[in-house]
Design a protein that fits this description.
The chain is an all-alpha fold. Helices cover 77% and strands 0% of the residues. The radius of gyration is 21 Å and the shape is elongated. The termini are far apart.
Length: 251
């Protein structure tokens, strides 16, 4: 409740530690105060709240998590006031933390729309953040949601208009495919991931190609001998002949 925003930003980090041992009445008051911080007029305060809401969510009881904390999180994740992409990008990491606390049904109902929105956010920094954290997101939501919803958004990030986003997503290709259940790896990779990889091999940005080159060899054990010879070997050869030395070096 301080007049200066600095005291309010500092307060955001205290709630997770203070919440568990206090009485029910005090817990209610703490949740109300944290709500005030999440809706503060000052972007720096909302940014601090977004960075700590994941920690606070771990301390809060499940009923209050769903009824009070997740709506606050959704508001931060869609923060358009003064075009605060800095608030929205911090909300991505918090969303992954919260997803780890929920079951699959609740994730799909409560959080999935936010993750979809972040993957197509107008700010490249938000899209970069979700690309950078995509493996953590994949593990948090589980294989079913990944197969039904996240594959589309991952391939979208691989085709993003910003090179930084494409490079970040390209770095995650091997881990993303490795974490897929073995029985669906081929069904997901051949029609979805592989076409995007073929486009990245001829990308105009050398950093994107270098990122791809650092992980593309790791796809061979996943795809098997026949698919590697048919699909990946021609891509290896293209990257080996690339004009940029760092691309060739990574292969």
């Amino acid at each position: 409740q301080g007049d200066w925003f600095t005291s309010r930003t500092s307060a955001c980090g205290l709630y997770a530690a203070c919440y568990p041992p206090v009485s029910v009445a005090l817990k209610t008051e703490l949740r109300a105060l944290f709500k005030c911080l999440c809706t503060d007029d000052t972007p720096m305060v909302r940014r601090a709240a977004a960075s700590k809401i994941g920690e606070f969510a771990k301390a809060v009881e499940m009923e209050h998590l769903k009824a009070e904390i997740i709506p606050l999180f959704i508001a931060l994740a869609n923060d358009e006031q003064f075009s605060q992409d800095s608030v929205r990008l911090l909300a991505v990491e918090a969303g992954i933390t919260i997803a780890g606390l929920l079951n699959e049904s609740d994730i799909e109902t409560l959080l999935l729309p936010m993750f979809r929105s972040a993957a197509s956010d107008k700010s490249w920094r938000v899209r970069f953040m979700i690309a950078d954290k995509f493996i953590e997101l994949q593990k948090a939501v589980g294989p079913t949601i990944t197969k039904n919803h996240l594959v589309f958004h991952f391939t979208g990030l691989l085709k993003d208009v910003e090179a930084e986003v494409r490079a970040s997503a390209a770095n995650k290709i091997q881990d993303f495919c490795t974490n897929l259940p073995a029985e669906i790896q081929e069904a997901v990779m051949l029609p979805n991931v592989l076409p995007a990889v073929k486009e990245l091999v001829c990308d105009t940005n050398q950093h994107v190609k270098a990122a791809l080159a650092s992980v593309i060899m790791g796809l061979s054990p996943i795809m098997g001998k026949d698919h590697t010879i048919q699909h990946l070997l021609p891509l290896f050869l293209i990257l080996l002949k690339d004009e940029h030395s760092d691309v060739r070096l990574n292969i």
